[in-house]
Every structure is written in structure tokens, then in C-alpha cells.
Give the backbone structure.
Amino acid sequence: MRVCGAGRAAARATCRDGGPAGVRQRAGRWRAVGRYDHCVSDCLFCGIASGRFPAKTVRENSRTIAFRDINPQAPTHVLVIPKEHYADVAAVAEAGGGLLDEMASLAHRVAVAEGIGGSGYRADFNSGPDAGQDVAHAHVIGGRPLEWPPG
Ligand SMILES: [Zn+2]
């Protein structure tokens, strides 16, 4: 994986030198250190979080952002991601600092804003290749009856 070199301005927007893990600035270049690779330059979600790639943003706060899925599976289908790159939900949880709580809270606020907070919705984290996941994100899905088990 290429990390943060090409889009330095974008990297500065989402990577913090001296942050808890992931990226340090060395000789003018952002380099990955530690367990996480924050701001991966070829990561679509990092591009969306930094504004390099367009997305239909629904809600946003300082550490998380919610935007509409480009291939919606229900009337409401929104993705919630941390603005820094984490490989999966376990990495988000291990990062601590309430980031996983913020993602869950943002997912709920999206559902309420979409008018499905009362009728019901699904907020899920897929993890690993069998779930079609390669970077941490949550789906908020609703606006129609949801079957179980999901496909
Ligand atoms: Zn990423």
C-alpha cells in the first residue's frame, strides 16, 4: 500500500503528526508507522474523508463522516467511516478514545435524520474478505423491511 505521499495536502487534513498511531512526518513525507496506516493514498474511503473523491455526505463530525452508498440496497443506505484509516472494526475498537462510539452514534443520528430511527434500521460492520470488507466502515440500511439473515 502506498501511504500518504502523493496527496500531502489531503494527508495533512486527516493525518496528524504525533497522533496516537499510524503516521509520522519524516523528511517531508508522511510515512506509516505502527499498526495502522492512516490516510492510505489509494484508499477510496480516505479519499472521500479528505475530500479528494466526491461523495454525497449526509452528516459529519470531527472524526467520522457519513455518506450515501453509490449502490444503495435500500431507500436509506449510508456508509459511516472514521476519517482516519483503520483496517477493520477491531482496529477501530483497539484505537480507543471513543471512536467506535462516535461511529455508532453517527449511524443512529443518520437513521433519525433519514426518518427511520423509529421504524428501524440496520447498522452493521462487515469484517474480512468473506464479508466484502477491506477497510473499516459501517452500513446504515433501512427504509424497508429488512430480512434476516442478510444475504
Ligand atoms: Zn482508508
